[in-house]
Specification:
Elements (H helix, E strand, L loop, with lengths): L1 E3 L3 H11 L2 E6 L6 H8 L4 E6 L8 H13 L3 E5 L6 E4 L4 E4 L2 E2 L17 E5 L2 H17 L5 H17 L12 H4 L5 E5 L5 H15 L4 H4 L3 E5 L15 E6 L5 E9 L5 E4 L6 E9 L2 E2 L2 E2 L2 H18 L9 E4 H12 L6 H7 L3 E2 L3
Parallel strand pairs: 2-3, 3-4, 9-11
Antiparallel strand pairs: 1-8, 2-5, 5-6, 6-8, 7-18, 9-17, 10-14, 11-12, 12-14, 13-14, 15-16
Helix pairs in contact: 3-5
């Protein structure tokens, strides 16, 4: 039986539900897959062989599956880092096809997957199914136990893959929340205007840049933050995009722009008011944010989107406090608001671990 995106998931669920002993050799796993297995499988044995070591599997899902195995005897999970197959084997049928479970090698998950076209075969011929089972059993012998060390390495690889996955949007304001997550974009929110002394120091840093032999310093537009040291509770990260904005006394969000740190121009000066050392963190203007443009008009649109969240995080907080937070924190908040602060797991269950391709 030929499987497409319209019936792939249905047949996969059926194989899980009707099989007492099920073997899954599926390379890449993403968020929602653990919910599918927990609901659909109730048999005697479920052996899962995944590829945890190349960055295409979400380690959180594997952690959840390992935790589930403590309550569900017969559930076992091993990793084989050269696995690229997508095969499910039950006692009556087997499936071989293009689909990973909820995620692909580029790290797409959940709503990011909508629209991908799948193809596979549902195999009922018992001789072929037995050949597939023998193939799986041989691979299982070479599978490795999943240790905490392996999971931590996988987490770093996963985040790296998530950050480099391709985008379809050309503008930041047009990108979906799901596609913006895990991009290592930060938001810097400041309240106070700079002192005259800091402006003088920044002018000196600008002159230093113009005398530099480095094209990246000669041609970049510079700005700065005053008194935001690297040892603060929420330091400004290096080598990543920073969306900086002012949240003024009238609770307006203004001056939103994309920047990155230029640490070679950072300065320390002695305050003429407090006689204490003050940091000056220099920033270079970015033309794009992870490949997406952010025009002046688009900045205003994005600022309006951010404002309710900023109002909330400053509610009851020192109005002069500057904040540096991951964009993911805002996106998670926005998702909770959109869902009425319900358990987000319901959305994952609704999508029922959509099966998607890899590259």
């Amino acid at each position: 039986m030929f499987l497409t995106s319209q019936n792939y998931l249905q047949e996969f669920q059926s194989l899980l539900q009707t099989g007492s002993r099920v073997s899954l050799a599926v390379a890449f796993w993403g968020q929602g897959a653990q919910d599918l297995l927990e609901k659909a499988w109730g048999g005697e044995s479920l052996r899962i062989l995944c590829n945890l070591g190349t960055g295409g599997t979400n380690p959180r899902v594997i952690r959840d599956l390992l935790a589930l195995s403590c309550d569900r005897p017969g559930l076992e999970v091993l990793t084989l880092d050269n696995l690229h197959a997508k095969v499910a084997i039950g006692e009556q049928t087997a499936i071989v096809g293009s689909a990973n479970i909820s995620s692909n090698g580029l790290g797409f998950e959940d709503t990011e997957c909508v629209g991908w076209q799948e193809a596979g075969l549902l195999i009922s011929d018992n001789s072929l199914r037995l050949q597939m089972q023998a193939w799986f059993d041989d691979l299982w012998m070479h599978g490795e136990e999943i240790t905490e060390e392996k999971l931590k390495i996988a987490e770093n690889l996963w985040m790296k893959n998530r950050g480099s996955r391709p985008l379809s949007a050309k503008k930041l304001v047009e990108a979906s929340a799901a596609s913006l997550k895990n991009r290592d974009i930060h938001l810097a929110i400041f309240r106070l205007d700079a002192s005259d002394q800091a402006r003088v120091e920044a002018s000196l840093a600008n002159k230093e840049a113009r005398r530099s032999d480095s094209p990246e310093l000669l041609n970049v537009k510079l700005d700065f933050f005053e008194d935001w040291p690297d040892d603060s509770e929420e330091p400004l990260p290096r080598d990543v995009p920073i969306l900086a904005m002012r949240y003024g006394p009238t609770k307006r969000v203004t001056r939103l722009g994309a920047w990155t740190r230029v640490p070679q121009l950072d300065r320390i000066f002695l305050s003429s008011v407090t006689s204490e050392q003050v940091s000056l963190v220099m920033l270079g203007k970015l033309d794009s944010v992870v490949g997406m443009s952010l025009s002046a008009e688009d900045s205003k649109v994005f600022a309006r989107r951010l404002k309710p969240w900023i109002d909330e995080i400053y509610n009851g907080q020192d109005p002069e406090t500057a904040r540096c937070l991951s964009l993911d924190e805002f996106l998670d908040w926005e998702e909770r608001i959109a869902s009425g602060d319900r358990d987000l797991k319901s959305s994952a269950q609704a999508s029922l671990a959509m099966l998607t391709p890899d590259y």
